[in-house]
């Protein structure tokens, strides 16, 4: 859905660097989901946030990954000390009453 | 835990013909939603169709319809009068309906659909 914005669309990092992925939900939506799509696979749930709160992070690796959705500004997915296995497409989705609307994704490549 | 299985990694269909993509799922819930998403080469996830489990009537959206068999936990997508623009990866997805849950989507592994001119 064009209403969900993600940037950057493409991000290249070297091993050990940090990656910051941003997601601006549909205006008025206060629920954000992050999903990861590894090559040749379906999307896998990582984390669910409401404004200023992490509600469910059961799909997110315990190490190196963190997410936030501040009162003002976009949601951020942060990956510290990236490794080659982090290379994937990361999708953000925002939810109003029922439907989840997806952003165009950020393609992360780790060299 | 809920699982979604798409057993057809690739399918092809002649333009203007009909194709059916298969999906099965496993859940202990009685109330849930099922979805088909389309992912073209742009990688944008586009919602194609949605089905509420409590509704017996199969959902239809223009050329897209589903065959929802709740007892068999089957949810297939039928595309009629296939067009070149239908070529994409198609994902089946499941979501719990209960208001107390996070309501994240669980996706299948996808079916790559090729439309032949």
Would you write up a description of this structure?
- The complex is a heterodimer of chains A (111) and B (117).
- By secondary structure, chain A is an all-beta fold.
- In chain A, 0% of the residues lie in helices and 51% in strands.
- Chain A is built from no helices and 11 strands.
- In chain A, a hairpin with a 4-residue loop joins β9 (88-95) and β10 (100-102).
- Chain A is globular, with a radius of gyration of 13 Å.
- Chain B is 0% helix and 51% strand.
- Chain B has strands at residues 3-5, 10-14, 19-21, 24-26, 32-39, 46-52, 60-61, 64-69, 74-79, 88-96, 106-107, 111-116.
- In chain B, strands 2, 5, 6, 10, 11 and 12 form a 6-stranded mixed beta sheet that branches.
- Chain B starts with a strand and ends with a strand.
- The A-B interface holds A 33, 35, 41-45, 48, 55-56, 59, 89, 91, 93, 95, 98-102, 104-105, 107 and B 4, 33, 37, 42-45, 47, 50, 91, 102-110.
Fold blueprint:
The complex is a heterodimer of chains A (111) and B (117).
Chain A: E1 5-7, E2 10-13, E3 19-24, E4 31-37, E5 43-50, E6 53-56, E7 65-68, E8 75-79, E9 88-95, E10 100-102, E11 106-110
Chain B: E1 3-5, E2 10-14, E3 19-21, E4 24-26, E5 32-39, E6 46-52, E7 60-61, E8 64-69, E9 74-79, E10 88-96, E11 106-107, E12 111-116
Parallel strand pairs in B: 2-12
Antiparallel strand pairs in B: 1-4, 3-9, 5-6, 5-10, 7-8, 8-9, 10-11, 10-12
């Amino acid at each position: 859905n064009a209403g969900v914005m993600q940037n950057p669309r493409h991000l290249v990092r070297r091993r050990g660097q940090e990656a910051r992925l941003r997601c601006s939900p549909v205006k008025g939506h206060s629920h954000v989901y992050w999903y990861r799509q590894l090559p040749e696979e379906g999307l896998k749930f990582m984390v669910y946030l409401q404004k200023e709160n992490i509600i469910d992070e059961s799909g997110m690796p315990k190490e190196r990954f963190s997410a936030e959705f501040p009162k003002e500004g976009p949601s951020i997915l942060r990956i510290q000390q990236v490794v080659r296995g982090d290379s994937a497409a990361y999708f953000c989705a925002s939810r109003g009453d029922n439907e989840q609307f997806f952003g165009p994704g950020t393609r992360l490549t780790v060299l | 835990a809920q699982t979604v299985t798409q057993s057809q990694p690739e399918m092809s269909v002649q333009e203007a013909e009909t194709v059916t993509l298969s999906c099965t799922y496993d859940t202990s819930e009685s109330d849930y939603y099922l979805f088909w998403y389309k992912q073209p080469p742009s990688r944008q996830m586009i919602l194609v169709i949605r089905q509420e489990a409590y509704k017996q009537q199969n959902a239809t959206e223009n050329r897209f319809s589903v065959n929802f068999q709740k007892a068999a936990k089957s949810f297939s997508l039928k595309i009629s009068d296939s067009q070149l623009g239908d070529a994409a990866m198609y994902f089946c997805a499941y979501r719990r309906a209960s208001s107390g849950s996070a309501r994240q989507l669980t996706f299948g592994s996808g079916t790559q659909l090729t439309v032949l001119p």
